[in-house]
Design brief:
Chain A: Belongs to the GAMAD family. The structure holds two protein chains of two kinds. By secondary structure, chain A is α+β, with helices and mostly antiparallel strands. Chain A is built from two helices and five strands. The termini of chain B are far apart. Chain B has a five-stranded mixed β-sheet with strand order 6-7-8-9-13. Chain B has a four-stranded antiparallel β-sheet with strand order 1-4-3-2. In chain B, 30% of the residues are buried. In chain B, helix 1 runs antiparallel to helix 8. Chain B is an alpha+beta fold. The longest helix of chain B is centred in the C-terminal third of the chain and has 42 residues. Chains A and B meet through helix 1, strand 1, strand 2, helix 2 and strand 4 of A and helix 9 and helix 10 of B.
Chain lengths: 103, 884
């Protein structure tokens, strides 16, 4: 029981650590299918981000593996006019962080 | 001949019959149908003994495939002799003996075609036939069912057979033509006497007479019409086409919709995921990547193009070199401007190139009093100038007295409100003359036409004045329309203006009050409504002097509905305002919050029809500030609220006391103007200095200029650059102040005229042309072009200026703090001094005590030194003593 509680707390702590960086607007943890698990944004934005990022991630990963099947995607950064979206994929989950870098 | 035909047919038939008969003979496939065996076949039964004897055992020697056996005649005869009547061959004894050849054919008749299992072929011919060519024929004979199904047509060359007469030769003989007797010969010759006689030949036409010739025309003999039995015909195969059609079922279109929801986890599932070990590992592994990227972004913006960002600001310096205000045009009216000065300028809000100036007498107060009779005869005017005609003004507005300030109504440019020297508020309506103003603006050709006509400028009389006793008691120095977004209720609360027309205006005068006026007819009791209606019916169109009826309801009865008095803070008396400034005003931000012009709206749609709405219907607006700044005659800037409060004691409506007041200028304030870019930045100009204030900062002005030698008469913010403003001076020059360059001196100064500048106003005709209108004391209006450097603002200028003001504000705060601290320190110092004074005087003993104390300390020091040296092991006892 203790282990499980620690795990939950660690996740929280890590999220706080990322949140404390300058300019971070939101953090979303999504499962492999694109269903959000935890988010610091409101529900509608979360769902929107999760859905769109999932598709983009599949495409990017597909592209990387297509070029070299031994390779795999580790990190994706999308820079836009207003902010930057960083996505780290994994087998079961992904983590999305939105930052406003010019602040 | 005719008989030949049927013969041929019969011959055919006969031939066919013959063929059939002949065909019957060799083929054996019809053998099955005959129950009787033909003559040449003799079915017989062979016992097993006989079979063994002759080697023709059924199904062993002779099988279905090989049914033929040739038996020697001698053997058969021998068998017959040995076994006599018991022999199977006994019935055909004679036939066998008669058989010409040596060998007889025995055929195993498997299927009992002829009734027995064996048969003997009796004739040679048959044997030959069966054995040789039609071996297959025998197969057919035996296997009956096959013969009928298969058409085993064996191509046989027809064998020639002797012709059998069937009677056809007789017909031929009958038809043929033969000589029945020898031919007779006859010779015919004419009589001899005719021979040798002279003959005369003559011509005769063949056509003469009917006997000239014998005709043998062709005619159709029916006997010879041959019927074509054969005909050449071309045949083409074509596919069978069929026309067919089909139609789909028309289903009624129906609107359908679906709605989907994104998948979500339930809270338990989320919890479960959050607690999972998997997630924890993932996050810890991924964390460093994120931190690196986030920090990278924070350190530097890799996508920022420094080069392009750099060159933007440089453009201002390199390009244009002109910095001077160029004179564009100047207007001077010969008839009306003599001895007059311009008191106020206002650009026409919609028609570009039209500017209005108010002309007043150039006299001081004493001179006015002296010449009061003369002044009554010389009415004062507001003149409209158009750029196309620098000599003649377009329009003249007649005023009851000298107008010191006026303004066009922001929602309807045909209405002009002005404040007069006698304290009256005047309204003009120039709707009738607007086309003239617009025409002359566009057409230069019209000028030539005008020269022919009388050069009479139309004069428009004012259509309403306020009542003298109700208005100000001093010359109105400032008049402003309230913007159309809100209006004021009776208590001064800003409420929503449903009609979106500016209907209220504010005035101020040195008689210590600020008045608010409403253009609409006041609410009257229902009884008098009927009176009003009757009056309006009786005199519907009375229009003396050609004055439009727009403000008939206000004429001479106009009263302000709010009176804001300005009692002094901390002392008795009141402030005397000269200029005031509202936060949401239309003077300084002409292009500000105006809603888009409604061209469908009727112009001047009758202010008479508008009614002051009841207080209950009005919706108060929250975000309108009800505070205003007032510049007074004594050089103070007063910040007050115009809302009326009810005094609890007396029940009267009183205006609230001013919130604060700041004395910064030495003489009267002649300009209070808000920056068009920053609503809370105010510029105040007085004769020797000017100051910039920020609303809310009460400690002092953000910026205060040094005292100048030359009197400053007027100030005006630039419309396009947030950091620039213009100051007019007494010697007729204009100072351009650019806060980004210098805040202690003007960035440039230019002399415009020889007389003092009385008013400045800016207008932007187009993005390339910004004009500055400057009027001077001699009554000349100068129009100047603002150079590129002064009208083009860089992108970040607003930010920079804002930061500058904020910095100044911080400076003020810092000063305040320091001042407070300084005071505190001062107080403390004074307190200490006080304390010192009250303490008793110390005697000289103190000195002795001090010496004793010093000595003690020295001894202590020596002891300490000894101890330390001992500890360090440097001191020996001998030295110790020597030191002492």
């Amino acid at each position: 029981m203790l282990d499980i509680e620690c795990a939950g707390a660690e996740v929280e702590e890590t999220i706080k650590r990322i949140q404390s960086q300058k300019g971070v607007q939101g953090i979303i943890i999504v499962n492999a299918e694109g269903i959000p698990i935890k988010s610091t944004l409101d529900n509608s934005s979360t769902v929107q981000y999760a859905g769109n990022v999932h598709q983009l991630l599949m495409k990017a990963r597909g592209m990387v593996r297509d070029i070299d099947p031994q390779n795999d995607l580790t990190f994706l950064r999308v820079r836009s006019k207003k902010n930057e979206i960083m996505i780290a994929p994994d087998k079961d989950y992904f983590l999305i962080v939105i930052q406003n870098p010019t602040e | 001949m005719t008989s030949k035909r049927p013969k041929s047919k019969e011959a055919h038939k006969i031939k066919g019959k013959d063929k059939k008969k002949e065909n019957n003979f060799p083929t054996a496939d019809e053998g099955a149908s005959e129950p009787d065996h033909p003559d040449y076949i003799f079915p017989l039964v062979l016992t097993s003994a006989t079979q063994e004897l002759f080697g023709c055992r059924a199904d062993e020697d002779l099988t279905g495939e090989n049914p033929y056996k040739l038996l020697k005649k001698e053997d058969i005869v021998q068998d017959m002799k040995t076994r006599a009547s018991v022999s199977d061959f006994s019935p055909i004894k004679q036939l066998v003996l008669d058989y010409p050849e040596e060998e007889l054919l025995l055929v195993f008749d498997r299927d009992f075609t002829y009734g027995q299992s064996f048969y003997l072929v009796l004739t040679v011919e048959a044997k030959e036939n069966i054995l040789k060519p039609s071996v297959q024929g025998d197969d057919e004979e035996q296997i009956n069912h096959e013969e009928e199904d298969e058409e085993m047509i064996i191509p046989k060359t027809p064998e020639s057979r002797p012709w059998m007469s069937l009677g056809s030769e007789q017909e031929i003989e009958e038809e043929s033509v033969t000589e029945s007797r020898p031919r007779l010969r006859y010779k015919i010759s004419p009589l001899l006497r005719r021979c040798g006689a002279p003959v005369c030949f003559s011509d005769r036409s063949a056509l003469d007479g009917k006997e000239g010739f014998v005709e043998c025309p062709s005619y159709q003999d029916k006997s010879f019409s041959i019927r074509e039995m054969e005909r050449h015909t071309a045949i083409q195969a074509s596919s069978d086409t069929k026309h067919s059609s089909t139609q789909t079922l028309w289903k009624y279109p129906r609107n359908m919709w679906t709605q989907y929801e994104s998948r979500e986890f339930s809270p338990e599932e989320k919890e479960h995921h959050l607690q999972s070990e998997n997630l924890k590992n993932f996050i810890t592994s991924v964390l460093t990547r994120f931190e690196i990227s986030l920090q990278q972004n924070h350190i530097t913006d890799v996508f920022c193009d420094d080069w392009t960002a750099l060159c933007e600001d440089d453009g201002a310096l390199t390009g244009k070199t002109e910095t001077q205000l160029k004179e564009y045009q100047s207007f001077m009216d010969l008839h009306f401007s003599k001895e007059k000065t311009i008191s106020h300028i206002h650009w026409h809000p919609t028609i570009s190139g039209v500017i209005a100036v108010a002309m007043t007498e150039r006299l001081s107060l004493e001179e006015r009093i002296d010449n009061s009779t003369k002044l009554l005869l010389n009415p004062s005017y507001i003149l409209f100038w158009n750029f196309t005609d620098p000599i003649n003004p377009q329009l003249q507005l007649e005023c009851p007295d000298d107008v010191l300030c006026f303004q066009f109504c922001p929602s309807d440019p045909n209405i002009i409100a002005g404040g007069c020297m006698n304290g009256q508020v005047v309204l003009w309506d120039i709707s009738a003359h607007v086309e003239k103003l617009q025409d002359t603006r566009s057409g230069g050709k019209n000028i030539s036409n005008k020269l022919d006509k009388n050069n009479v400028t139309p004069v428009v009389r004012y259509c309403a004045v306020s009542g003298i006793e109700n208005g100000h008691k001093a010359p109105i120095t400032d008049i402003q329309w309230l913007p159309e977004t809100f209006e004021l209720s009776k208590l001064g609360i800003p409420v929503e203006n449903p009609s979106r027309i500016s209907v209220q205006l504010g005035t101020c005068a040195p008689d210590c009050c600020v008045l608010f006026w409403d253009l609409r007819p006041p609410r009257v009791v229902s009884q008098s409504l009927t009176d009003v209606k009757q009056k309006s019916e009786e005199k519907p169109l009375e229009n003396p002097h050609g004055v439009p009826n727009t403000f008939k309801h206000l004429n001479l009865t106009w009263k302000p509905f709010i009176r804001v008095s300005l009692p002094k803070i901390g002392s008795s008396g009141e402030y005397s305002p000269l200029k005031f400034s509202l936060r949401d005003n239309t003077v300084d931000c002409p292009t500000g919050d105006k809603p888009p012009q409604n061209t469908d709206r009727e112009e001047g749609c009758g202010f008479a029809q508008l009614r002051v709405p009841s207080a209950k219907q009005q919706k108060p607006l929250e975000n309108i500030s009800t505070k205003l700044y007032v510049g007074t005659e004594d050089g103070e800037l007063v910040y007050t609220d115009w809302k009326i409060e009810k005094d609890n004691d007396s029940g009267r409506l009183l205006s609230s006391k001013p919130i604060h007041r700041l004395l910064v200028h030495d003489t009267l304030v002649n300009t209070v103007s808000r920056s068009p870019f920053f609503r809370d930045i105010i510029l105040t100009v007085s004769s020797f200095s000017f100051a910039i204030w920020k609303e809310g900062v009460t400690s002092g002005p953000i910026l205060r200029s040094a005292c100048s030698k030359m009197l400053r008469t007027v100030g005006h913010w630039s419309l396009s650059r947030p950091a620039v403003f213009f100051i007019g001076k007494e010697d007729g020059s204009i100072e351009v102040w650019d806060l980004l360059q210098n805040s202690h001196e003007p960035s440039q100064s230019q002399n415009i005229s020889s007389a003092a500048v009385t008013c400045i106003s800016t207008s932007s005709i187009s993005s390339k042309q910004h004009l500055l209108a400057v009027s001077d004391r001699l009554g000349t209006l100068h129009i100047l072009q603002i150079p590129w450097t002064l009208r083009r603002s860089s992108n970040s200028e607003r930010q920079i200026v804002k930061k500058y003001f904020e910095k100044e504000e911080e400076r003020l705060e810092y000063f305040e703090k320091r001042q407070i601290q300084h005071e505190k320190e001062k107080k403390e110092m004074e307190a200490e001094q006080q304390r010192k004074k009250t303490e008793p005087v110390m005697p000289l003993k103190q000195e002795e005590e001090l010496e004793a104390e010093a000595l003690k300390e020295y001894e202590q020091f020596l002891a300490l030194e000894k101890v330390i040296l001992k500890n360090m092991g440097l001191l020996t006892e001998t030295e110790d003593r020597s030191d002492l």
